[in-house]
Amino acid sequence: MGFLKNFNKDKNSGLIDGWKELTSEEQLDQIMEDSKTKPVAIFKHSTRCGISTRAKFVLEEDWDYKDEELDFYYLDLLQHRNVSNKIEEVTGVQHQSPQVIVIKNGDPVYEETHHAINAKEIRTYL
Q: Alpha-carbon distance 119 to 55, whole Å?
């Protein structure tokens, strides 16, 4: 099943269906507000890091969430490091890469990094 998901990637962004790009601090402000009605997950990815690429692959392979369950954002750290800095400032979660943070009701409820990133574990925190 995960293999087939790879064919559902957006040709422009390379992201699987349902993943949204996080590109600005203003967008992050809206995401924090939106998390009060629906959980939000943010994946911070360094496109030059093999560990980060592997973590992204693992997320894609096991991704089985519906849009109504959570909003999922992808942050390219090389392009938008200022946004990652703002995430740390707003959530209090220290920057790591790769990293997944789940935000619910404006607060981080789950954070994982590197090889411990697991799409199925996110469900526990929704």
A: 10
Residue 17: pLDDT over 90: no
CA distance 25 to 67: 23
Quick: pLDDT tens for 65-80. 888 899 999 999 999 9
Q: Which domains does the chain have, with CATH numbers?
A: 2-9+16-125 (3.40.30.10)
pTM for the model: 0.86
- Contacts from 56-63 at CB under 8 Å and sequence distance 24+? 56/98, 58/117, 58/118, 58/119, 59/100, 59/117, 59/119, 60/2, 60/5, 60/6, 60/16, 61/2, 61/3, 61/5, 61/119, 62/2, 62/118, 62/119, 62/120, 63/2, 63/5, 63/16, 63/18, 63/119
pLDDT value at residue 64: 85
